[in-house]
Amino acid sequence: MMPSLILRTMAPLVFALSLPVSFFILIQGHNNPGGGFVGGLVAAAGVIFYALGRGRDAATDLLRVPPATLCGVGILLAVASGVPGLLGAGFLTHDWWAPAYGLGTALIFDTGVYLTVVGTASAIFLALIRS
Amino acid sequence: MQILLVAPLLIPLCTAALTAILWSRPDLQRPLGLAGAWLLLGSAVALLSAAWEHGPLVGQMGGWAAPYGITLVIDLFSAIMLVITGLMAVAVAIYAMGPGAVERDKAGFQPLFHSLILGVAGAFSTGDIFNLYVWFEVMLIASFGLLVLDRTREQIDGGLRYVALNLVGTLFFLMAVGLLYGLTGTLNLADIARVAPDIENQGALAAVGVLLLIAFGAKAAVFPIFNWLPAAYHTASMPVAAIFAALLTKVGVYAIIRVFTLIFAHDAAFFGPIVGVIAMATMVTGVLGAASHYDVRRILSFHIISQIGYMLVGVALMTPLAIAGSVLYVVHHIIVKANLFLIAGAMRQEGGSFALRRLGGLWAAKPILGLLFLVPALSLAGLPPLSGFWGKFAVIRAGLEAEAYVLAGVALAVGLLTLYSMIKIWNEAFWKMKPEAAKSIPWTRRERVATYAPILALAALTLTIGLWTEPFAALSLAAAEELLDRQGYIQAVLGSVQTAGLPGGAE
């Protein structure tokens, strides 16, 4: 069954809206509720909404890479953020470049979490729905 | 030192991530996975030699001092387990290049396999009980995925039972951790061990101990909570079954040994007899289950359970010799049991089936496979001069020295029954005339090499431990003495940390 016209039309808009919102949540997670995990979930919700409106294949094309690849890149980023600490106080000890803006290795870690969550949630959902 | 300490975690984590990035290129994942396994083995060997020279290695993650942050602690026992984990990772990574490799890798075998190794390595490295719980979860989630890799009805059926029963065990673990935190105010294993003997409510602490015994027992598949294991393992594809058989239950055994030598050592008079009875019941039920089955994989699955009983004898008796016996037994068992599963896969290729009724004539057709089967099979039964003999010898001698004659007697009798079911496999699969229907499955030369190389290497290792036992026995004894030296562990982790003022602190 084709999704309704409204759903099909709204899907790209909701997806486009979900990305800035998810980035905002990612950044504000430094001092306030939010962070990579929640931000990633919001972005994944955008992907899922897109898949509901336009079908699984369209959502797969939208991501361009397999969801597992996003996961892998995210994990590598998170690991990389801990490496400077490895040479100093201890693995995953974080450095701050501009604490007032939340810029530091912890943001890299959180971005890694963000990508991993987007990848995992999209992978699970795209595997479950019919195309 | 820092880098070495986190290497066994970072290597499988990065390997899993890189293989996931190469999701659509299984042909590139395979060499990458193998390289990751070799690197893990190398780092684990380096850790073992460092732990041998310097004593327990301790690292504080994120620079947070113990007991507030997460501590990684690698003592001899951990290092030994890490080395054996690396060894199994290499053996199975090679074996997984055998028949069915392409389908497995398309389904995501490599990332899941390395995530599993990550969970196992994490559980062996951590010095924090909640972190241990997290590593158990990592390991379990990866194992769920691996178990249903072929997506057959049989696998999903087995997988569901496995998930359901393991979640119950996990729930017990989480409850116990919560209660333990309520009692001691800390999650750091060394800090708990420091506080535990002095807390007032020893009854509640013992109750937590029983909960932990149930939780770890469920993972280790001890009597009476072993049902998930034979329900699931025989459905998995062979490399998966081999790595499960080698490592998963042993993580439960490791946790039991770690926690009960460290936190509940002062209450050994209470827990010793309980663990002793569980150990005996596990040995007996496992071996009887194996005797009643006629599928190679099911027989081997039940033997895992039976052997877990031997590994618990150390905790039951709490003498240096008994714990050394347990350590040696774990090492020997991981090698032998993984090898038997690898051989079962080869038997299926050569004979066309896992069912003993449909197998036959393999000795005439493939004498080398027969010889390779005999090494781990007789070692499992405990025949000299193979590695299993020394493991059983240490365990039974410790039992006799501690005047636990029933335990020692049961251990001996179970060895005999183990021999019976190994002879059953031998008679049916190798000795019997070849049935009409039996046909070998065609395979390429490459696949054959990938299958036989790890089998050969592990069999050689079994022989080495059997014939040249001295260094392995010495290492096990040193690990056991370190395990029993609780103050040494606490000192290594907490060091000069100001302990006064912590809840329950012994000023």
From TrEMBL, chain B:
Keywords tagged on the record: Cell membrane, Membrane, Transmembrane, Transmembrane helix, Ubiquinone
Pfam family, one: Proton_antipo_M
Coiled coil region boundaries: none
GO cellular component, one term: plasma membrane
InterPro entries given in the database record: CPA3_Na-H_Antiporter_D (IPR050586), NADH_UbQ_OxRdtase (IPR003918), ND/Mrp_TM (IPR001750)
Bilayer topology term: Multi-pass membrane protein
Gene Ontology biological-process annotations: ATP synthesis coupled electron transport
Cellular compartments annotated: Cell membrane; Membrane
GO molecular function: NADH dehydrogenase (ubiquinone) activity
Transmembrane segments: 6-24, 31-52, 72-96, 108-126, 132-150, 162-183, 203-229, 241-264, 270-290, 302-323, 329-347, 368-390, 402-423, 449-468
Principal location: membrane
Residue ranges of every copy of the NADH:quinone oxidoreductase/Mrp antiporter transmembrane domain listed in the record: 128-413
Family indicated by similarity: Belongs to the CPA3 antiporters (TC 2.A.63) subunit D family.
Protein name, as recorded: NADH/ubiquinone/plastoquinone
